[in-house]
Write a structure and sequence with these properties.
Number of domains: 5
Domain GGDEF: 392-524
Oligomer: single chain
Structural class: alpha+beta
InterPro entries: Biofilm_reg_signaling, EAL_dom, EAL_sf, GGDEF_dom, Nucleotide_cyclase, PAC, PAS, PAS-assoc_C
Pfam family, one: PAS_4
CATH topology of the largest domain: TIM Barrel
Biased composition (Polar residues): 95-105
Domain EAL: 533-790
Distance between the termini: 92 Å
Strand content: 25-35%
Length: 792
């Protein structure tokens, strides 16, 4: 008998009709067609038996007889997998041909006239032969289908890989017994296939001598149907054993119902032995002063001789209360008269407690324990309803933590969670028990303050809230500074419904955040401002659609030679009503509405097109820099987009520069390092903007791949007119020295006076940019300026 120890597999593509599209050397080796001969030939030319393309395509392949290189024929497994194009439409087939040594044997072992390899495929279940090393050397296709492994994968697998970890000790012992003792073994296992399908199987085997060696030959039979029957039998058994609940049978005796029988479950639940319960009316277990309505329902149902189901509290023998789900059914005699009642009681105390707990989880935030959004709306609706009835006021306070993302980026998300929990405790301790504190989402909290007697009272409460949030939070040996912006809306003045109140409080909070934090009460003017912001957001969309945005380019000059060394792209908006607008007038709103990424992509495209035009005019060494925001460069696909643009516009490495403020890079060092490395990899230069504006981390900057630093505008602006005597002049000189010590070019921007030019040039600043040299120029003006300089 031939035993499989390896297999050969090739893959190629066909079109929808079965004509070969791709062909590699491995296919040439197996079938003899060269890569030049194969394309366009039909798959049927490789088939030696009765199988043909239409039937194979409809079934996804089959075990077929094929023609191989050298005129040989033999069995192989052909697998056809449908391919799809980018639109999801079917487009061709992937054909995989697997041939094992047993398939290609010239004289395979036979049972009668049938090859053994086909006999084992006729067997029910899985069939396998395993050598002493635990490797599969022979198997049928049922094993491949069950495991969802290819022949190569099965040949490389170890038998113990098929068993779950908890089953392996027994499997290894059985494996040992087969080879060492010649035992016949069997065991049940649970096999989990590649797709996650679990199959319970009864596997077994025995030792067989073959070709001078010994193997474990065995079979596996799915016992899924047996398991399902066992499960159904077990379920039926549980149903028949309803006696796990308490059962009480009573006899009608006038106004009483005398207990005649109780089962052991009743004794366990109620704590009364059968001897103490029989002969008494079940009312002896009643819990005084509880659930009088439910008990009256039971008395009425018994009097009317009908069934009833109630849930109430009873009392165990030890005095403990428990929740009892009681179903009572009348039993009639042969004359139709009710003579007995059967009561089935179930102790649902744990379920009641669990339900109460689940209700709490459904309505509360899992991190802070505060009311969640669902409960908030319910509480706010209720508060508004009561305030309307009692002619009182309700205050809605929306709180947004300041710089919470920075806390997460700097100290980690664990620190952010700690901050949120501390803030929740502080808010709860600063309000009354009748008030509601809710976590709306993320770092946003909403408070419902009921029964507000006056605005002065509300102001004092909100100020107490604000002060409670100003104290830093201790975490990991650090003190994390926190702050918050609070917006307040009052019912009924600022809104008549819950939704109106929350919107008004949100507008007030937005106003507070825009003015540096603190507390702001809603005013009608805020609604107008909010409408203006919404209108601005819509206008930004129209600006993108109607080509109202445009770029200007301000040159960077060599401080010594006066030559142009590059340009900075500056965004402008030609607004149909307000004229030309600077970025400060609309980019903040674009950030809030999520339109910043789309605007940024447009700017990058325009800047790259301008670079391409410069190169076509012969100006191949003038880079263009583009400012990008954190929202842009932290987007997935930002770097890939830059690489695509560099290739699309034919730009060499270093032609495009990305400007990022120093503070943004330092705020998230990990992202800064990754971004720097990825920019360098795609040939885009990194320029650090606003160098020296805040805290600098020189050790961190040395880790980045940076082309240049641009002095902060404040450092240039503060250069004294009378030379180097002022503090601003000293700061600029220090920053230039630091930049050079880091081996970086230093650019002074926003240069507007002769004194600034003289100072920066005399202290070694490499390049200068600003109104003193040139205002930002239209592309045509740039080309004209460059041509004039070239002619000069």
């Amino acid at each position: 008998m031939s035993l499989i120890e390896a297999s050969t597999q090739v893959t190629f593509l066909t079109d929808d009709e079965g004509n070969v599209v791709t062909w590699n050397p491995a296919c040439s080796t197996m079938f003899g067609w060269t890569p030049e001969q194969a394309p366009g030939r039909h798959l049927d030319a490789l088939l030696a038996g009765d199988a043909h393309w239409p039937a194979l395509a409809s079934s996804g392949g089959a075990r077929v007889r094929m023609r191989f290189a050298g005129g040989r024929e033999g069995k192989a497994t052909l697998l056809l997998i449908r391919q799809y194009d980018a639109r999801g439409e079917p487009h061709g087939w992937s054909a995989t041909v697997s041939v094992s040594p047993a398939d290609s044997t010239s004289e395979p072992e036979r049972v009668g006239n049938t090859p053994l390899a086909e006999v084992v495929d006729l067997l029910p279940g899985t069939f396998y032969a395993i050598n002493r090393e635990g490797r599969f050397v022979l198997w049928n296709h049922n094993l491949e289908r069950m495991t969802e492994l290819t022949p190569d994968e099965l040949a490389a697998a170890h038998v113990m890989d098929m068993f779950e970890p908890r089953e392996r000790p027994l499997a290894m012992e059985n494996f040992r017994r087969v080879f060492e003792q010649g035992a016949e073994v069997s065991m049940e296992m649970h096999y989990v296939s590649r797709s996650g399908r679990e199959t319970p199987i009864l596997v077994g085997g025995a030792r067989v001598a073959c070709d001078g060696d010994q193997y474990l030959f065995g079979m596996g039979i799915s016992i899924a149907k047996r398991r399902e029957k066992e499960r159904q039998l077990l379920l039926s058994e549980r149903a028949l054993h309803a006696a796990s609940n308490g059962i009480v049978i009573t006899r009608c005796a006038g106004r009483d119902n005398i207990i005649e029988y109780v089962n052991p479950a009743f004794e366990r639940i109620a704590g009364y032995p059968a001897a103490e319960a029989i002969g008494r009316d079940p009312r002896f277990m009643a819990a005084p002063n509880f659930d009088t309505h439910e008990r009256s329902q039971v008395r009425l149902a018994i009097a009317e001789r009908r069934a009833v189901n109630v849930v109430f509290r009873n009392q165990r023998k030890n005095g403990e209360l428990f929740w009892n789900d009681l179903s009572i059914t009348p039993v009639r005699d042969e004359y139709g008269e009710v003579t007995h009642f059967i009561g089935i009681l179930q102790d649902v105390t744990a379920t009641k407690q669990r339900t109460d707990h689940l209700e709490h989880e459904i309505n509360h935030d899992p991190l802070t324990g505060l009311a969640n959004r669902t409960l908030l709306w319910d509480r706010l609706d209720h508060a508004v309803h009561l305030a309307l009835r009692h002619k009182s006021m309700v205050a809605t306070v929306l709180i947004d933590l300041d710089n919470f993302k920075t806390i997460n980026d700097t100290f980690g998300h664990e620190a952010g969670d700690v901050v949120l929990k501390v803030v929740a405790r502080r808010l709860q301790s600063a309000v009354r028990e009748s008030d509601t504190v809710a976590r709306m989402s993320g770092d946003e909290f909403v408070l419902v303050l009921v029964d507000q007697p006056s605005l002065r009272f509300t102001l004092r409460m909100v100020e107490r809230l604000r002060r409670s949030l100003t104290m830093p939070v201790a975490f990991g040996g650090n003190e994390i500074p926190i702050g918050a912006s609070l917006g307040v809306a009052i019912f009924p003045a600022d809104g008549k419904t819950s939704a109106e109140l929350v919107r008004a409080a949100d507008m007030a909070m937005y106003h507070a955040k825009g003015n540096g934090g603190g507390v702001h009460f809603f005013s009608p003017e805020m609604r107008s401002a909010n409408e203006r912001r919404a209108a601005l957001a819509n206008s930004i969309r129209a600006a993108l659609d109607h080509d109202e945005l445009f770029l200007l380019f301000q040159p960077r000059m060599d401080a010594r030679s006066g030559k142009v060394r590059g340009f900075e792209a500056l965004l402008r908006w030609r607004h149909p009503e307000h004229g030309v607008m600077l970025p400060a007038a609309f980019l903040a709103e674009a950030e809030e509405t999520g339109q910043m990424v789309e605007i940024g992509n447009w700017v990058l495209d325009q800047a790259c097109a301008f670079l391409q035009q410069l190169r076509q005019l012969g100006y191949s060494s003038l880079p263009v820099s583009v400012n990008v925001s954190h929202r842009e460069y932290s987007q997935h696909g930002f770097i890939a987009g830059l690489a695509v643009r560099m290739q699309r516009y034919g730009l060499p490495p270093g032609a495009l520069e990305i400007e990022i403020p120093e503070a943004d890079l330092i705020r998230n060092p990990g992202l800064g390092r990754d971004l720097s490395a990825q920019l360098a990899e795609v040939g885009v230069a990194l320029s650090i903007d606003e160098f020296g504006k805040g805290i600098s981390d020189l050790a961190f900057l040395q880790q980045l791949s940076v082309r240049q630093v641009k002095l902060s505008k404040a450092a240039v602006r503060d250069i004294a007119a009378d030379g180097s005597s002022g503090r601003g002049s000293l700061l600029a000189k220090t920053l230039i020295d630091i930049g050079h010590n880091l081996d970086l070019a230093v650019v002074g921007e926003a240069v507007e006076t002769e004194a600034q030019v003289a100072f920066l040039t005399s202290h070694g600043c490499d390049q200068l940019q600003g109104q003193w040299f040139s205002e930002p120029l239209q592309p045509d003006a740039v080309r004209e300026m460059l041509d004039q300089r070239r002619q000069a």
